[in-house]
Each structure stands twice: as structure tokens, then as C-alpha cells.
Amino acid sequence: MAKITMREAISQALWEEMERDPGVFILGEEVGVWGGTYAVTKGFYEHFGEKRVRDTPIAEAAIVGAAIGAALTGLRPVAELMTINFAFSAMDHIVNEAAKLHYMFGGQMVLPLVIRTPGGGGRQLGATHSQTPDAIFAHFPGLKVVAPGTPADAKGLLKSAIRENNPILFIENATLYQMKGEVPDGEYLIPIGKSTVQRPGKHVTLVTYSKMLPVSMEACNSLAKEGIDVEVVDLRSLRPLDMDPVLESVRKTNRAVIVEEGWKSFGVGAEVASRIYEDAFDDLDAPVKRVAQLEVPLPYNRTLEKSAIPQTADVIRAVREVVQ
Amino acid sequence: MANLVNMPKLGFDMAEGTLIRWDKKVGDSITRGEVLAEIETDKATVEVQSTYDGVLAKLLVEEGQAVPVGDPIAWIVEPGEDVSALEAPVSGSPAPGEAVKETVASPESQPQLQSQQSSVITSGRVKVSPLARKIASERGISLQGVQGSGPGGRIVKRDLETLLDNLLSQDTKKEIRPLPSPNPLVDRSAIPADDVVKASRLRQAINRRMTSSKQQIPHFYVVHEYDFAPIMKLRSELNALLPDDQKISVNDFIIKAAAMALRFYPNLNASMQDDEIVRHGHVNIGVAVAVEGGLLTVVSKDADVKPLRLISSEVREMAARAREGKVRPEEIEGSTFSISNLGMFDVEEFSAIINPPEAAILAVGSVKQTPVVVNGELQAGTRLKATLSADHRITDGAEAAQFLQCMEDFLEQPMRLLL
Which of B36, B59, B82 is the last residue of a domain? Predict the structure, then answer.
């Protein structure tokens, strides 16, 4: 067990899987000679060679399309999109091809494809490069959507994703690459589609994932000083959405807050809240509260951007309201 | 058409009633079931409800006036009807008691089992969390009147927890009797003089009835001891499922057991009338309730066929009204057997006087932990003693003893009371 960054944890997972299975290869913009926009694949090109670490044109549709073709022929591509905002250029391939081929051809082929891509705002990259459109992708049956919130989960989930025979969108968060955490050395697998309790508590259930996990954990530490004991459930994957730990927790605390970085309307919080109402209505002692991004294109201005994205103080306020 | 309202007969032996208060004035419109007046009888103050829809046209008696049973007290007419010709008494007027026949009873015509559950559904939405609603429904707590502490006055879980805590602590509170202030023995002037008070109507009635009962009915007494451990166990199991204001009392079980046993011993559910014994078709259990200055007997009608919970809730509600002097006529009439329970006052056993025209009364002592011998071994047991006072004109010792034994079958295998 070593304390490493999420960047290193992801890099480790990729490296180990490429060592383990010669069918695994990487393709994307600047992943090879440059070592990756976020330096996740630094040193891979030198070690694994140009056939397994392939630089591509700036053409997301081509990247995903080529990856789908490779997966259909039996390889295990890990495609990298520089940001999730560029995934819209490859939307048809992702949601119409990758998500549906196995189904539409009667299971004749499998698609062991992983698309890695960082999302999220907070780095003053402007409205088109700062989005958190996770819910859009999670809407499509046939596509798994995974989004880790700790370095250990990033490693364990990515290794499992690469070994899966289903297409997976693996959403990283650009502001979490520097986040450090204990990560097991060597073989470490976390099953896809399992939520987990990241912090036990008894007064209110906080459901979150990805970047909002550390934001929420910080809020919880502060709330603990007020005597509010928050239980944090990390979804880790949006599809499949594992509600069991959430419902179990809500049945214990009778209150819930959902924190996501993306917009509130039609979002992850809306989905989770609906399922709580459907399956745990009689256990609720207060309405479910959502914390989410303000309904605006994300501003470039640092102050405005910060005020649009949920911060620790927003989470604290919401939890206080729900335990009232 | 014009309808005449008469002084109702509110008990077997009621001869007259005093009209204490008119609740309606001449000219007021009145609907069936509305309270027309309050009447004091030997037993209680009761409200008389109208059995007609219409307008109160004429009052035939004044407040404070004593009126023989069956005499007319008022006219109720249809709106706009000519009232100038109305007089009292009018020939061809309804037979005495008819206007209020729902409240009239005689031993021959026992009252029908009526739904007396007050099923008032209060309107107005109560803001309550789903969880609190579930807890309330599980524990049988009424949410009306509960003060919500959540946002916007919403009732949440902690409000119900507080409520339950309070109820529990009230239950365990024991009243501490104040000691009389110590008077110096030497100061004889401090000893109060005799206090002479006029006996209340109720006291006078008790005087008459008890004297006549003890003089005219040849009482005999049979005592039986019951193993009450099974009842206590069942009761705690049942009450764990019930809210505090709906707990089943020890007496409720005894009412039910006596009622069921009476079905097998009709001579104890009977009345002596001249040379005839009337074995009543209904089993209506009178339950003695201590009230201000005396006691009243509220009646659990057809208790042999009523579920235990219904008996419990009815008796609780009727007893509460009896203590407030607001008991309804039908609630104190028609009993065919009585139970007097002094168990709450730590009583070993006692004997009661028969409540005429009934044939018997059961006097119930306290449930006590006591040493018992079981299979030759001494051990701690839970016991209750009950004494049956019976009318020797109607029944005999063997029958009375068998009746008490029959009650044992129910009390010591109390599941039978629930079947």
C-alpha cells in the first residue's frame, strides 16, 4: 500500500493491464510521444511502443470509431478523450454504436472497450470545456458509466473496466489527478456497479460521487463538529446504479442529501432522489435535498465559476437544512 | 307534522328525571342526533338527543323541573308549521317513550348492538413526514394535535419519540399523597366540627338501590382464585402492539371472560320478575366506575361477541364520560351482569352488592405475586381473586362455582378470548 496520486493510480492500472494482456492498447490525442495531456501515460510510449500507444488525429469520432472496430476484432482498446466535452463529437459512436452493437446483433460480438475521459469544472476553461455531462451518458442502456472519487477506487475500477466485455465510459475528474490516497500495490480489483459507504454516520445520508466526494467529506468533518454525523455513500458508477447501500443508509438515517457537480435538472440527484422516494418513502423524515451546479453555462470568471459549482459550504448548508 | 318529545326512560328503575338545561331555544332548528336538553337522573346527568328533524316549537317543562318518565317535554315541528294549536298533553299523542325510543330499554327488549365508536374523522391536512406517518400508524398514535417541530410545523420522527417518552413517563409517575399538617394534640379547638352535607341525588339513589338490594335479594358469595400469569403475559404482548391510550386493561380481559362464560350459565345473566326468571338474550356487562360522590355502571353491550379491543375502547370512553358527568343514556342502561374491580387499589378480595335487577355481580381484587404450590414445589405465582355475589332466588352455589370455573377456562387460556 502506497500513498499516491489519482494520476499515478490510473497510470498504474493501465500499466499493469497492458503488462498482463497484450490485447490492451491505448489510443488518443497526445497519449504517446507527449505522454498524455494530464501525463497519465507518461513513459508508456517508450515502454510499450507505438503500436500499443497510438497518437491519433484531433478527431474524437475517429478515436472512438477505431476503438469500437478494434474491440469488435478482439482487442481491448482504452481510448482517451482529452475532455468529456469532446465526447459530444463522438456521441453517435458512443451511444448509437458502442452502446447498442452487442444488443442489435443478437450478442454475436462483445465490445471490451474503455473510453477514459476527464470531466468537471473549476479550472477556468470556459463554458464549453468545463462541463459535467455524466448523466447524459448514464441515460443510455448498454453503456456503463464509472466515475471514481478516490485514487484506490480509480485503480481498482479501471482494472476491472479493462477486463470487462462491455463498453465503459470511465469519467475521471481533472481536478482530482493531484489528489493523494492509499492505493494497494499490484493486483487490485473493484467490481463495476457497486456503491460503497465511504464514511459511516447516523443522522443523514449523503449520496455523491467523483469530485464531490472529497468536497462532501470535507463538509462532513466540519458538520461533525456541530454534532451532525453524516453517512456518505459513494456511487462510483452511475450505470449500473447500485442503490442498495443508499437505501440501507436512508432506512437508518431517514434523511438524504445528494451532491453532484453537474446541473440539477434531469441529473444524477434527480435519479437517486426518485429512487429513494420510490423505494424508501415510508422511511423518510424529511424531503430529499439536492446540491448541484447552478443552471448556467459555467462562467470563465474564477469567482463566478466557483459560485456556480457546489462548494463545501453549500453541502454544509444543505445538510443542516435536511436535519432541521 | 308535529312530534312530541317525552322524558326518556334511562334505566330499568328510572321513574322521573329533572330537566337541568335546555340546549335549544324555541324557534331553533334541530336535526336528529343533536342535543336537545340535559337531564339528571338518579344515576347521572345525560344528554338527550332529538330523534326528529325540525324546529323546536314549544317547551312543555322548565329548567329544574322533575318530569315523570314518558311525560311530554317539548314539541318539534316542521319549519313553517302552525304551532298555535300545540298543547300538552294532547290526546292521541305518541305513547310515552316513543319519541326517544332509541334510548329506552326494558329487560324484555334489550337494546340492539349499536356502533358506538365515535368515528369522527377530523378534516384538515396534517403536515407529517412519511416516516412519522408510518410510526404513528404502527403505534396507533393520532397525529391530530401533535405539534410538529420540523420545517413549516411538519411532524417528524422526533416529535413522536418525544410524545411516546412523555406518555411513558406519565405512566410511571406515582402520585404522592400529602400528609395532613400535624395538629398539636393538646389544641382540641383545632379539631374540625362535624361536617353535615346534603346527600347528592346520586348518593340518594345509591342509598335506595343498595338498601333494597341487600334487603330483598338473598346474597351468597363464592370466591375463586385465578392463575393470572397467562393473562399478564398475553396482555404485555398485546399492549406492546398498542399505543399507550389504547392499552388493554386487566379488567377488559375479565369483562370478556365473564361475558363468554355467562353464555354457558344463563341463570347468572338473568332477572327475577315476580314469579318469572328472565334469562336475557343479550350479555351486557355493567362495569362499575367510581365518579365524583358515588359510582356509575357503564355497560359494555354484547360483550360476549365483541372483540376485546372494542370492549376496551368503549369502556375507556364511557368511563371517561361518566367521570365528566356526560355519560349518554344508552351507556348506563341495560346491563345484565356487573363487574366491580378494585384491583387498582391493592385489594386482596372483597364482596359486592348485586345491582338489581341483575342476578349476580363479580368483585375483582388485585393481581398479586404470591407463593403457590405447583406439583408439590413452592414457587412464585401470579394470582387474582374474584368473588361472585349471586341471587339465591335465581341460582345456587354449585352453579355459581361452575360459572367461576368456566371463567377460569378463559382466563387461564386467554387466547380463547381472542378467538
Answer: B82
